[in-house]
Amino acid sequence: MFKRRWLDLKPKIILLNLDVKKDDRGVLAEISPVLKNRLKHMFMATILPGKTRGNHYHKHKTEWILVLEGKVLVTLVDAKNKKQNQIELTGLTPQLLEVVPHTSVKISNHTKRKAIILVIVDEAFNLHDPDVWQLTLSYSTPSLKDDP
């Protein structure tokens, strides 16, 4: 009975709030205290208007996504039961979205401005074992909208 209930669940949205310091110069948000010693690989990516990144899942890696600038729509899909969940993230709110193994992630920019994201992974990239798996699904795509 428990297993059946678990399979009916959408992927959980896990948001980690960062410790934010504000002053007249701007904002500083620390990431390393939140992730402690789990940070092994990190990269920055841009997502142009109307474009998408990700669209894959990992079997043993955990990722954290931070929007540095702009706004994105993140679609999470449980690779086992295909249930979907979505969240909109913005660079105005410094939060890490945790993506656990077996959760496909699609990051879409439906605005008219470039988005910049930082992705942190708990394993160093290994060319011989990239742990990148495709999940073929049809996603609902909202129309392009302006940033505030």
UniProtKB/TrEMBL annotation:
Transmembrane segments: none
Name of the protein this chain belongs to: Capsular polysaccharide assembling protein CapF C-terminal domain-containing protein
Top-rank lineage group of the source organism: Bacteria
Domain Capsular polysaccharide assembling protein CapF C-terminal: 22-132
Biological classification of the source: Bacteria, Candidatus Curtissiibacteriota
Gene3D superfamilies assigned: Jelly Rolls
